[in-house]
Amino acid sequence: MSVVIVGGHDRMVTQYKKICKEYHCKAKVFTHMCANMSNQIGRPDLVILFTNTVSHKMVHCAVAESERNHTRIERCHSSSASALKGILEQYA
H or E stretch including 89? Predict the structure, then answer.
């Protein structure tokens, strides 16, 4: 299963990827808006939006891409490791 995480803290990127690996998921993490983010998202199975630590522009880009590709979106206000584990337990 492939997962795209949009938002979160810079210092948590390696932990996010490690947690996803524990649930047998391949993860891409975007903590900042990059120039061609819509092209880099690809076609994941799940998009996780950490809404507390993400810009509106990034949310709009991620939602537009996931709607275009018919991808599930999970929104979470917290960007903690336990919040990510809870989401992955539901979907993985």
Answer: helix 81-91
**d(Cα 22, Cα 52) in Å, to the nearest integer?**
24
Cα(13)–Cα(31) distance, rounded to whole angstroms?
8
pLDDT digit string (tens) for 2-46? Answer: 999 999 999 999 999 999 999 999 999 999 998 889 899 999 999
Closest CA to 9 of 83, 62, 66, 63: 83
Q: Which residues lie closer than 8 Å to 7 by C-beta, 6 or more apart?
A: 30, 31, 49, 50, 51, 52, 53, 54, 58, 79
- The model scores a pTM over 0.85: yes
